[in-house]
């Protein structure tokens, strides 16, 4: 069994913070394709189009018949064959985290693989494989106990492959709305030590304020993402204590493009959702990057909650889809930058939120609690992208299968 | 399968070693030039005299044999680049021998040279191969230590071999190194020192690992006539084998390609393992030495503890093993580590060893093992050499 994580002790301000190294990022294109699926929480291997053999490590041709290969979901069962505890390494990250256990497994899917070992598994054990992303955004096979063991997710090695909120301090950028408040509750339930809840207008009361204030571990902080000074000021105050940022900023207005559209709505949306995202990244990114390997409550993730229609555009919500598209583009860029420093950048995509701005949209709509659940799921599994609710899942599946068809469908 | 043609009309001569250093500011080119200079001093030959050149290195980037030929002022009519590390010596020997036998070249310099600059080991590991960069090094970045630790872990359980058995091999090699004036590790090693060494990647401990260093090794493959003209002592190539990526369905490596072709080797050599006077084996991790003892036909894997107990692997013992100390004690100069089995075997049968002489050495078995591309060594080769003319 794994010892439960103990709450981090107060940091000695005179001690140097451990630098957040990541492994060398040199990877094949096939490995990057594996990383994309890992970021979606899938367990995949390449399978030959012709002879159906599953293969690993990532290749460009089938080693049995030279057919072409496709990524396919595979059974996660495996048996551990060998183990070693690495005590000496030339890699700066693993040197800090030695000893580190790895082993080889026989995958039920066919191939063998070298994998990270959970502390509860030994040679001969049946294990459940997970395909994770490492701190640098690269794919990593991790062997978990086949059946749940006590405090399993607190395993020190496993925790470097997740952004589990347990014992971490989280900034939720917009606490005035139901999504931010649901987020705060879910984070505390998941073990977060503190939630800082942004309030964009300290002169105005908001629904749910009393309940939020009443939470012992919630602190309402002034944060207006459309105001650079406000973001900078909060980052200076809190930057070194924020382990996870969850950006819930959203401006939803109905609009077309030529018809039924208001430039001011679009501008307000961009100012809050897009420029605001960049302000947050500028304000909190560097401080988080400096603390990506800072013990139990190391900085771990930057989460952006955006509309799934950023992938496609959407009739009736063209402006909101445009801001979401811009957010997705910025998030991709941020992900590339943060991969150098060991911070996960996560997109949680939502369908139409079940709120006052989507009153006329027929169900299924996405409840704030579903969004919060999806964010927690992404953090605890270390995902890169997660869909909240059925509408987002449906659109994402259609978009993956045929992006241009889905764009056409959503704009007619 | 067609049997191997004999290596008539080919001899091997002039083994040279450029003494190793732990770290070097020089380049692989400098070390390769050092090997050529050493060959020149042995033979009196200059750049214009070599019409064949075979090169092995990990650290000559961005150059291959092409860049090296121009760098060193050679103008060969035959050249080859061997990227197989620990198997490169046997492979260079095979290729050069056929080139000479067929008249594609008359005098081939086979050279392996590598430098070891500060941090170059880490950089070599990080970019070693596509599979390793995708699928081994991100897993704890233990390098070959970790890969061989897993192979050793399995080998111990499967064949009931233990560190006690490996201790004997490593201690014997260190004893052998004590007489080699240019071995890097010359502090006597005891059985207890071996067992009490610090763990590196369990069950691999410090004295299971080679010390990366800089150095170069070279030898010449030519015709008997040319060697006679140059006044060089010569050896002949009795038989060779080579195999890559054998037993791909073994989930963990317990055998190398030797096992597949070993009968062909002994049949072509007209002798058996009991007839050799020494074994110059690839020894980066004793588990590979043990694997070779079995795969080359000395014993079954299940008999390894008994075989190791019953034999003495020092220079005057029943089966002299890596008589220069091997890579474990002499150092591993990159691809040159895959050549020292050839140069040392050659020196012993030509009676010009670096250290002590194996008594009455007439037959050397040389075995190479190279390139942990992913989870196992891929390249294997072996050769039997015997003295031809001692001058």
Number of separate helices of chain B: 14
The CATH class assignment of the largest domain in chain B is: Alpha Beta
> How big a fraction of the residues of chain B is strand?
15-25%
What is the domain tally of chain A?
Answer: 2
Helix share of residues of chain A?
25-40%
Give the CATH class of the largest domain in chain A: Alpha Beta
* CATH architecture label of the largest domain in chain B: 3-Layer(aba) Sandwich
In CATH, the homologous superfamily of the largest domain in chain A goes by the name: NAD(P)-binding Rossmann-like Domain
Order of helices and strands of chain A: HEEEEHEEEEHEHEHEHEHEHEHEHH
Task: Based on the model shown, name its key terms.
heterodimer; A: 412 residues; Rossmann fold; 2 domains; 11 helices; 15 strands; 33% helix; B: 391 residues; alpha/beta; Peroxisomal Thiolase, Chain A, domain 1; five-stranded mixed β-sheet
In a few lines, what is going on in this structure?
In chain A, 33% of the residues lie in helices and 21% in strands. Chain A has 412 residues and is an alpha/beta fold. Chain A starts with 28 loop residues before the first helix and ends with a helix.
Please describe what this structure looks like:
The complex is a heterodimer of chains A (412) and B (391). In chain A, strands 11-10-9-12-13-14-15 form a 7-stranded parallel β-sheet, with helices on both faces. In chain A, strands 4-5-6-8-7 form a 5-stranded mixed beta barrel. In chain A, strands 2-1-3 form a 3-stranded antiparallel β-sheet, covered by helices on one side. Chain A is globular, with a radius of gyration of 22 Å. Chain A is of the alpha/beta class and 412 residues long. Helix content of chain A is 33%, strand content 21%. In chain A, 50% of the residues are buried. Chain A has 2 domains: 29-159, no CATH class; 169-410, Rossmann fold (3-Layer(aba) Sandwich). The mean pLDDT of chain A is 95. Chain A starts with 28 loop residues before the first helix and ends with a helix. Chain B has 391 residues and is of the alpha/beta class. Chain B folds into 2 domains: 11-119 and 214-230, Peroxisomal Thiolase, Chain A, domain 1, CATH 3.40.47.10; 143-211 and 234-389, Peroxisomal Thiolase, Chain A, domain 1 (3-Layer(aba) Sandwich), CATH 3.40.47.10. Helices cover 35% and strands 20% of the residues of chain B. Chain B has helices spanning 28-43, 65-71, 88-101, 120-126, 130-135, 143-159, 163-177, 191-195, 224-230, 258-269, 286-295, 304-310, 326-330, 340-349; strands spanning 11-21, 52-56, 78-81, 107-114, 199-201, 204-205, 214-222, 234-244, 278-280, 364-372, 377-389. A 5-stranded mixed β-sheet of chain B has the order 1-7-4-2-3, with helices on both faces. In chain B, strands 8-11-10-9 form a 4-stranded mixed β-sheet, with helices on both faces. The model of chain B has no long low-confidence stretch (mean pLDDT 96). The chains are: A alpha/beta (412), B alpha/beta (391). The A-B interface holds A 23-24, 26-28, 30-31, 56-58, 63, 81-91, 93-94, 100-104, 106, 112-116, 123, 134, 138, 140 and B 121-122, 125-127, 130-131, 133-143, 145-147, 149-151, 153-154, 157, 198-204, 248, 251-252, 374-375.
């Amino acid at each position: 069994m794994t010892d439960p994580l103990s709450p981090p002790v107060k940091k000695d301000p005179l001690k140097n913070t451990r630098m957040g190294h990541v492994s060398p990022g040199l990877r094949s294109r096939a490995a990057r394709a594996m990383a994309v699926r890992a970021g979606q929480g899938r367990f995949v291997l390449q399978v030959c189009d012709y002879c159906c053999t599953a293969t690993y490590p990532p290749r460009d041709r089938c080693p049995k018949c030279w057919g072409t290969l496709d990524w396919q979901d595979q059974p996660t069962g495996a048996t551990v064959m060998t183990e070693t505890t690495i005590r000496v390494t030339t890699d700066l990250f693993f040197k800090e985290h030695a000893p580190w256990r790895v082993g080889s497994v026989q995958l039920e899917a066919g191939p063998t693989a070298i994998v990270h070992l959970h502390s509860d598994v030994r040679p001969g054990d049946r294990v459940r494989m997970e395909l994770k992303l490492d701190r640098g955004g690269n794919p990593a096979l991790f062997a978990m106990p086949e059946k749940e063991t006590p405090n399993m997710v607190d395993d020190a090695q496993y925790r470097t492959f997740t952004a589990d909120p347990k014992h971490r301090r989280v900034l939720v950028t917009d606490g005035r709305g139901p999504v931010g408040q649901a987020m705060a509750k879910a984070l505390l339930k998941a073990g977060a030590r503190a939630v800082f809840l942004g309030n964009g207008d300290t002169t105005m009361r908001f629904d749910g304020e009393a309940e939020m204030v009443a939470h012992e571990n919630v602190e309402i902080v002034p944060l207006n993402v459309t105001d650079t000074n406000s973001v900078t000021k909060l980052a200076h105050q809190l930057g070194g204590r924020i382990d996870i940022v969850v950006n819930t900023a959203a401006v939803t207005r109905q609009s077309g493009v030529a018809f039924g559209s208001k430039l001011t709505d679009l501008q307000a949306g961009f100012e809050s959702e897009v420029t605001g995202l960049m302000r947050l990244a500028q304000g909190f990114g560097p401080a988080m990057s400096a603390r990506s390997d800072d013990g139990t409550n190391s900085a771990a993730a930057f989460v952006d909650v955006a509309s799934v229609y950023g992938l496609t555009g959407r009739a009736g919500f063209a402006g909101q889809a445009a801001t979401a598209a811009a957010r997705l583009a910025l998030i991709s860029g941020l992900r590339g930058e943060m991969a150098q420093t060991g911070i996960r950048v996560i997109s949680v995509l939502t369908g139409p939120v079940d709120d006052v701005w989507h009153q006329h949209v027929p169900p299924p709509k996405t409840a704030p609690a579903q969004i919060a659940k999806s964010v927690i799921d992404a953090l605890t599994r270390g995902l890169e992208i997660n869909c909240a609710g059925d509408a987002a899942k449906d659109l994402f599946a259609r978009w993956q299968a045929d992006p241009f068809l889905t764009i056409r469908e959503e704009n007619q | 399968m067609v049997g191997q043609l004999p290596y008539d009309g080919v001899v091997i001569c002039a083994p040279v070693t450029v003494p190793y250093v732990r770290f070097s500011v020089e380049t692989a080119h400098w070390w390769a030039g050092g090997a050529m200079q050493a060959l020149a001093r042995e033979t009196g030959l200059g750049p214009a005299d070599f019409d064949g050149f075979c090169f092995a290195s990990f650290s000559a980037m961005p150059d291959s044999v092409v860049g090296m030929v121009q760098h060193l002022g050679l103008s060969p009519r035959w050249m080859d680049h061997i990227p197989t590390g620990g198997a490169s010596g046997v492979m260079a020997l095979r290729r050069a021998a056929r080139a000479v036998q067929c008249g594609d070249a008359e005098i081939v310099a086979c050279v392996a040279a590598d430098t070891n600059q500060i941090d170059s080991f880490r950089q070599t590991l990080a970019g070693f191969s596509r599979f390793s960069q995708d699928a081994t090094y991100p897993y704890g970045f233990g390098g070959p230590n970790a890969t061989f630790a897993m192979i050793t872990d399995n080998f111990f359980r499967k064949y009931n071999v233990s560190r006690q058995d490996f201790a004997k091999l490593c201690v014997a090699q260190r004893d052998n190194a004590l007489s080699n004036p240019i071995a890097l590790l010359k502090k006597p090693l005891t059985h207890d020192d071996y067992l009490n060494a610090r763990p590196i990647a369990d069950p691999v401990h410090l004295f299971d690992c080679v010390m990366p260093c800089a150095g170069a090794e070279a030898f010449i493959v030519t015709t008997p006539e040319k060697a006679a003209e140059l006044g060089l002592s010569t050896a002949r190539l009795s038989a060779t084998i080579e195999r890559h990526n054998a037993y791909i369905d073994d989930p963990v490596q317990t055998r190398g390609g030797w096992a597949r072709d070993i009968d062909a080797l002994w049949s072509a050599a007209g002798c058996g393992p009991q007839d050799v006077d020494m074994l110059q084996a690839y020894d980066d991790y004793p588990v590979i030495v043990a694997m070779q003892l079995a795969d080359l036909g000395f014993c079954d894997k299940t008999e390894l503890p008994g075989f190791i107990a019953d034999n003495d692997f020092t220079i005057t013992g029943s089966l002299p093993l890596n008589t220069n100390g091997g890579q474990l004690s002499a150092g591993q100069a990159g691809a040159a580590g895959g050549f020292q089995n050839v140069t040392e075997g050659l020196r012993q049968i030509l009676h010009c060893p670096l250290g002590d002489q194996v008594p009455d050495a007439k037959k050397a078995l040389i075995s190479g093992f190279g390139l942990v591309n992913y989870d196992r060594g891929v390249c294997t080769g072996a050769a039997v050499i015997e003295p031809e003319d001692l001058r």
